[in-house]
Amino acid sequence: MKRIALFLLTNLAVMLVLGIVLSLVFRFTGLDSRSLGGLLLLAAVFGFGGSFISLAMSKWIAKRSTGAVVITQPNNETENWLVNTVAAQAKKAGIRCPEVAIYDAPDMNAFATGMNKNKALVAVSSGLLQSMTRDEAEAVLAHEVSHIASGDMVTMTLLQGVVNTFVIFIARVLGNIIDSALNNNNSESEGRGFSYYIIVFILEMIFGVLASTIVMYYSRQREFSADSGAARLVGKNKMIAALQRLQKSSEPHLEGNMMAFGISGKSSGGLFMSHPPLESRIKALQEA
């Protein structure tokens, strides 16, 4: 319930801010919101704006939605090992050490998030720390550090922004065409009818689902890349062992962007999976 409320409030705030920005842009540029240029501007503001605001807030949202506690001063040997391990890997990868946090969850998982590679967060579940060996956990941490070092969060945000922009723009262009056809091109009618907004809503849902397959395909490729990065940081055998351990774990509980940058994703979903099957990831490492 807390996650749902946080999600709704965050998106409401984002829509409000972008709406104000868009109204100011239209006022100062003099663009007609119904023109192709106006529609493209609207699509770009909401498409890219929503993605980048979400990225900017990603650490804040992740901490509050998962209850992750950042380790500012290690209180035990495990926390000390976590901080030192991530710091060593970050140095080797050529990035600033990210914040390190632990969140309470029974599944074996971890995720990375943050606005850029030098202001990131790596969080691991309590279930991972309890169920994995140090070598396996080290490989998982290396996987997340590799995501950060490769700039995957920003790249995924850019891709999502492009996809969102095209979905919003094409849905509105087609919505105008369909609405005009349904109204027999009545030039005397003023304003857009209710049917236009229904059509746009339906088209955005359809195109959004189709476009998400592109984003998920790219996400799966980045998982292979992060596995390879982890293998370079800590060794191929450790990464393979970690993935084999994950085969015995339960379904992950992470959602949204945190799922995309977690060590493990849902085991089903086909084209909509954010992670490749664990078997495919293990095979790719073995053949590398």
Q: How is the topology of this model organized?
A:
Layout: H1 2-29, H2 36-56, H3 58-66, E1 69-70, H4 77-93, E2 99-103, E3 110-114, E4 120-125, H5 126-131, H6 134-149, H7 152-182, H8 194-234, H9 236-246, H10 256-260, H11 278-287
Parallel strand pairs: 2-4
Antiparallel strand pairs: 1-2, 3-4
Helix pairs in contact: 1-2, 2-7, 4-6, 6-8, 6-9, 7-8, 8-9, 9-11
Description:
The chain has 288 residues and is α+β, with helices and mostly antiparallel strands. Among the domains are: 1-30; 67-148, Metalloproteases ("zincins"), catalytic domain (Zincin-like). The protein contains 11 helices and 4 strands, in the order αααβαβββααααααα.
Index terms:
68% helix, Zincin-like, alpha+beta, metal-binding, Peptidase_M48, elongated, single chain
The percent range for strand residues is 5-15%
Task: Tell me the distance between the termini.
Answer: 43 Å
Order of helices and strands: HHHEHEEEHHHHHHH
Shape: elongated
- Return the CATH class of the domain at 67-148: Alpha Beta
Radius of gyration: 22 Å
CATH fourth-tier homologous superfamily of the domain at 67-148:
Metalloproteases ("zincins"), catalytic domain
Largest sheet geometry: 4 strands, mixed
Q: By helix and strand content, what is the structural category?
A: alpha+beta
Q: What is the count of β-strands?
A: 4
Strand arrangement within the widest β-sheet reads: 1-2-4-3
| Overall pLDDT confidence | 86
Assign the CATH architecture of the domain at 67-148: 2-Layer Sandwich
The number of helical segments is 11
Contiguous low-pLDDT stretches (5 residues minimum) are none
- Helix fraction? 55-70%
User: Would you give the CATH topology of the domain at 67-148?
Assistant: Zincin-like
